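Q: Focus on the shape:
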Amino acid sequence: MAELASVTDADFGAEVLQAEGPVLVDFWAEWCGPCRLMAPVLEKLAAGLQGQLKIVKLDVQANPETPVTLGVMNLPTLILFRGGTELKRFGGAMPAKKLAQQLQEVLGK
């Protein structure tokens, strides 16, 4: 499994909005049970989609500005960006296969 990189309020623009390709951001918190369930799913997905999709995580407790700016109300929330634009938003925990299928539909692969 791939270790996911973390982003912060300070580097969100450079790491996500200005990234070359698509980026999936996992908005999570340590106390969130469903977030902990999604962690291995996202790590597995990151390994399988390496080179096609960058997956990063943002701890909403340590970095409250970005979630507020983007209107993240529930955890976990996953937002797919490309070229600085939000393409799709996913809420709640879901199986890897379902998430991969939905991502492929959006990314056209």
User: Anything to note?
Assistant: The two ends are 22 Å apart (CA to CA). The mean pLDDT is 94.
